Amino acid sequence: RTVYVNGTYLPETEATVSIFDRAFLMADGVYEVTSVLGGKLIDFEGHLARLERSLSELDIRKPAVFDDLLEIHRELVKVNGIEDGLVYLQMTRGSDGDRDFAFPDPETTEPTVVLFTQSKPGLANSPQAEKGLKIISIDDIRWGRRDIKTVQLLYPSMGKMMAKRAGCDDAWLVEDGHVTEGTSNNAYIVKGGKIITRQLSNDILHGITRAAVLRFAKEAQMTVEERFFTVDEAKQADEAFVTSASAFVMPVVEIDGQSVGDGTPGPVAKRLREIYLEESLKAAI
Ligand code: PMP
């Protein structure tokens, strides 16, 4: 695989980053994941805009390479022959060659920029979408700025492992009795034809797929309610699903061992998945 590190395309085995990089020492970095379908980038502009916001919220200087990111994404997709898959991008505060809690001088510290691809043949035809996900609910003990897409992913990883050990696929995070989001996706329920998902705030990531799916749902005259919901409400719902750049729209069929609806992917989730894939493929670049 060819990867991109700080201005250079090179084989992954030759790619290096400093051990003093603040992302390595302090999780001081942000990332984006963009899907590739048929060799094209899905929702690229949305991911770029969120990246810019994440950098700005953390006072990480926007590197000059920012304006070339589309070209770099396309080049990696091309040289690695990615039909279906992902482009992972990470930007960190870099380092001044030492370890210190205070940020290094942004004038003299160049952010680290890393991109690589992952090939995922048949990404849009995942058998998981036919089966639906089984999820568990766990406490959301993450920090209070989940709207910033940082590489601080230890607790989401632990949540995924808790789910696996329980024989499930994923976990929904719960704070003050309400579902915030999934470990790596936004969470939704459907009740009486209404699509319900938590309102945006610093408590959840502002999903790029969430924004697109809610727009398509409204365009298709579906009712969307952005508000808190509980795990109990989710268990009593007609349907549940999650959205993310890599899973698109994915039905949820079981929560804490209890079937949602009839325990199979529901019609609203299925329809939204179809619409999302169709519309975002049309707009892919
Ligand atoms: N919430 C969290 C915590 C996530 O990690 C992700 C995926 N990165 C999402 C939501 C979904 O965001 P997007 O649709 O932009 O992939």
Automatic annotation (TrEMBL):
<dbReference type="GO" id="GO:0005829">
    <property type="term" value="C:cytosol"/>
</dbReference>
<dbReference type="GO" id="GO:0009082">
    <property type="term" value="P:branched-chain amino acid biosynthetic process"/>
</dbReference>
<keyword id="KW-0663">Pyridoxal phosphate</keyword>
<comment type="pathway">
    <text>Amino-acid biosynthesis; L-leucine biosynthesis; L-leucine from 3-methyl-2-oxobutanoate: step 4/4.</text>
</comment>
<dbReference type="GO" id="GO:0008652">
    <property type="term" value="P:amino acid biosynthetic process"/>
</dbReference>
<dbReference type="InterPro" id="IPR050571">
    <property type="entry name" value="Class-IV_PLP-Dep_Aminotrnsfr"/>
</dbReference>
<dbReference type="InterPro" id="IPR043132">
    <property type="entry name" value="BCAT-like_C"/>
</dbReference>
<dbReference type="Pfam" id="PF01063">
    <property type="entry name" value="Aminotran_4"/>
</dbReference>
<dbReference type="InterPro" id="IPR036038">
    <property type="entry name" value="Aminotransferase-like"/>
</dbReference>
<keyword id="KW-0028">Amino-acid biosynthesis</keyword>
<dbReference type="InterPro" id="IPR043131">
    <property type="entry name" value="BCAT-like_N"/>
</dbReference>
<dbReference type="InterPro" id="IPR001544">
    <property type="entry name" value="Aminotrans_IV"/>
</dbReference>
<comment type="similarity">
    <text>Belongs to the class-IV pyridoxal-phosphate-dependent aminotransferase family.</text>
</comment>
<comment type="function">
    <text>Acts on leucine, isoleucine and valine.</text>
</comment>
<comment type="pathway">
    <text>Amino-acid biosynthesis; L-valine biosynthesis; L-valine from pyruvate: step 4/4.</text>
</comment>
<dbReference type="InterPro" id="IPR018300">
    <property type="entry name" value="Aminotrans_IV_CS"/>
</dbReference>
<dbReference type="GO" id="GO:0004084">
    <property type="term" value="F:branched-chain-amino-acid transaminase activity"/>
</dbReference>
<keyword id="KW-0100">Branched-chain amino acid biosynthesis</keyword>
<protein>
    <recommendedName>
        <fullName>Probable branched-chain-amino-acid aminotransferase</fullName>
        <ecNumber>2.6.1.42</ecNumber>
    </recommendedName>
</protein>
